[in-house]
Amino acid sequence: MPTSLDKIGNKPNSRQCENAYLILRNAHDASNSFLDIFNNVRKNRKAKGTPTDEEQDLLRAMLTFAGAGLDSMVKQLIADALPLVVRRDNVAQDIFKKYIGKRLKKGDEIDHQLLADVLGDANPRDYLITILVKDLTSNSLQSTDQLLRVGSFFNIPSNDICDDPKYLSIIFKARNEIAHEMDIDFNQTNRNRRPRARDKMIEYANYVFKITEIFLTGVDKKLQQRLLRRRR
Q1: d(Cα 190, Cα 157) in Å, to the nearest integer?
Q2: DSSP E strand boundaries for the chain
Q3: 214 in a domain, yes or no?
Q4: Per-residue pLDDT in tens (0 to 9) along the chain, 232 residues
Q5: Is residue 97 one of the residues assigned to a domain?
Q6: How do residues 150-175 score in pLDDT, each as one tens digit?
Q7: How many helices (H) and strands (E) does the chain have?
Q8: Could you tell me if residue 1 is inside a domain?
Q9: What does DSSP say about strands 109-110 and 105-106: parallel, antiparallel, or unpaired?
Q10: Rounded to an integer, what distance in angstroms lies between the CA atom of residue 94 and that of residue 30?
């Protein structure tokens, strides 16, 4: 049985990914700390069987911080790296253009105010990229669809980010039950909170950090590939 989370990888090469990696590392450290406390509490009281609600709260915090790390890290990548990817990656540029085409419409008509704001700006392209960044970072990225949508703007295929979208959705569901419902289930007979087993919660947290690392690595590789092409 695992007693700690899997280790995270090395620092990325791209400068635009440095802040995102710092977020990942700190989220991982925090989640691991909650797991360490859980293990120590259980060990000190020589506990066997189902953890108490208080002990399970430590597992809930571990998964919550893993999810928060994913959300915060991806948003940091949107702010720091997406503008450069859009400028350099042809497919990302096409996806960006389609987004702007939809954004400039207000129903069946052109959004004349937005068009005026864009054309009146000193740098219309940067203004439009800012609109995209604000759009992608305005909501919590705590669902599979939201995460993969962001990935598409980086031109990272969904299959490269997540090999099991259904499983990731199950994890997001658990995270949202904890964060938004206090994990309360009024149908429970003995307790009014959903039970959370240590091994399953470690598995969930590890998968979230795996996805977080994959996303970061994907963006880092894309930036590095473009730099190599320019140097040749």
Answers
A1: 45
A2: 105-106, 109-110
A3: yes
A4: 677 899 999 999 999 999 999 999 999 999 999 999 999 999 999 988 899 999 999 999 999 999 999 999 999 999 999 999 999 899 999 999 999 999 888 777 788 888 888 888 789 899 999 999 999 999 889 999 999 999 999 999 999 999 999 999 999 999 999 999 999 988 877 778 999 999 999 999 999 999 999 999 999 999 987 554 554 4
A5: yes
A6: 999 999 999 999 999 999 999 999 99
A7: 10, 2
A8: no
A9: antiparallel
A10: 39
Residue 9 is assigned to a structural domain of this protein: no
For residues 51 and 71, what is the distance between their CA atoms, to the nearest angstrom?
28
* DSSP 8-state code for residue 154: T
Neighbours of 44 (CB within 10 A): 8
Nearest to 207 by CA among 167, 150, 153: 167
Range of the domain at 145: 15-231
End-to-end Cα distance, the chain = 49
Q: Helix, strand, coil % (nearest 5) of the chain? A: 70, 5, 25
Cβ atoms of 147 and 141 within 8 Å: the answer is yes
Q: Is the dihedral of CA 141, 144, 146, 151 positive or negative?
A: positive
What is the chain's length?
A: 232
54, 40, 28: which is closest to 202 by C-alpha?
28
Q: Are 4 and 32 in contact (CB under 8 A)?
A: yes
Instruction: Let me know: does 71 contact 27? Beta carbons within 8 Å.
Output: no
Q: How many domains in the chain? A: 1
Whole-angstrom distance, CA of residue 228 vs CA of residue 232: 7
Q: Are 8 and 28 within 8 A, CB to CB?
A: yes
